[in-house]
Specification:
Chain lengths: ~170, ~180
């Protein structure tokens, strides 16, 4: 009855149950954190702005991104993935979201940052609608935990406009 | 004669009972595993609710051997979400992040572009020939939760099948020989 196999099985089951419970509690404890991140984005320069032969508009920007995401970090946070997307509406598409820049923040010490960068990914429209286009910048973050549930949210910054003329 | 026969009979009967109860407990294990899996499929709405990360393309967020819990609902796909998708002509689904979304006004159809966090360029080169965007039907789920290391056993078992047979054999032996 109390053979070696039986005891090993009981021990393993108990250990795994405790481990699963601890993982679940670590993940649940993330809900206690109520973060208050802040961000600001400026367009420093429109580098160029052109129409492709297939009729799609493309623009290249230089951005100034300032953000403080320190409050997102908890003891169960492995990293925070942060990215900036341009969001706009066109006659054809009810929503366009184009990621322009992203970064991985590995630790809380790096979560307050300031960066000047040209767009890392190309901002190409599905059509020729970018001239004089009003759009939003959204700074999204995706909290990736050591274990458990992932969290994501964003800050929307509106009132940006692309130039009227190609150059 | 009478005594010996009775003992033999009762022995046979208890052996039969033991064998039957073992078969039932084995069946219980198999069916409850199946029930949990099918239940997960139902509640998450994804045809494969748990996946093992096989590549390094999402490091350091997801490492090889981590498992991901998927969820699928009617909510539209948005940038930043980590989705699992199938490509026509490829067997293995891919876990990557959405970096671009274009949602068509009238139909509500979406064009999606993905990229692995650890890759330098977007995924367009590994889509099917002539495919520029993913559509809703390629997506089999979005990742909502993460558990490290647990999937490593499956990676080992697929790479070294001998370990799989040893494990299954040992488990089977354990179930058959245990009388608890």
């Amino acid at each position: 009855m109390h053979s070696f196999g039986y005891r090993a099985n009981a021990l393993l089951t108990f250990a795994l149950t405790i481990l699963a419970l601890m993982c679940a509690m670590a993940s649940l404890s993330d809900n206690l954190n109520s973060p208050s991140p802040s961000a600001e984005i400026q367009i420093l320069n429109i580098n160029w702005f052109q129409r492709h032969p297939d009729g799609n508009d493309e623009v290249s920007l230089t951005l100034n991104i300032t953000a403080d995401l320190q409050s997102l970090f908890t003891w169960n946070t492995k990293q925070v993935f942060v990215f900036v997307a341009a969001e706009y509406e066109t006659p054809k598409n009810s929503l366009n979201q184009v990621s322009l820049w992203d970064g991985i923040i590995p630790a809380k010490e790096h979560a307050k940052f300031w960066i000047q960068t040209p767009n890392k990914y190309r901002l190409i429209d599905q059509g020729g609608n970018l001239r004089g286009k009003e759009f939003n910048f959204t700074l999204h973050w995706h909290v990736m935990p050591k274990t458990g549930k992932m969290f994501a949210d964003k800050i929307v910054m509106s009132g940006y406009r692309l130039p009227e003329e190609y150059r | 004669m009478g005594f010996v026969g009775e003992t033999l009979d009762s022995l046979k009967r208890t052996q039969l009972r033991d064998a039957l109860s073992q078969a039932i407990s084995l069946g219980m294990i198999v069916t409850s595993a199946l029930m949990i899996w099918k239940g997960l499929i139902y509640f998450t709405g994804s045809e494969s609710p748990v996946v093992v990360v096989l590549s390094e393309s999402m490091e350091p967020g997801f490492k090889r051997g981590d498992i991901l819990f998927l969820h699928m609902n009617k909510d539209p796909i948005r940038t930043g979400e980590i989705v699992v998708f199938n490509i026509d002509g490829r067997d293995i689904p891919i876990v990557h992040r959405v970096i671009e979304v274009h949602e068509h006004g009238g139909t509500g159809e979406v064009d999606i572009l993905t990229k692995g966090d650890n890759n330098d360029i977007d995924d367009r080169i590994m889509y099917a020939q002539g495919q520029h965007w993913l559509q809703q039907q390629h997506i089999i789920g979005r990742a909502v939760g993460h558990l490290p290391y647990v999937g490593y056993l499956t990676i080992i078992m697929t790479e070294k099948p001998i370990i799989k047979y040893i494990l299954i054999g040992a488990l089977g032996l354990f179930v058959l020989t245990s009388t608890e």
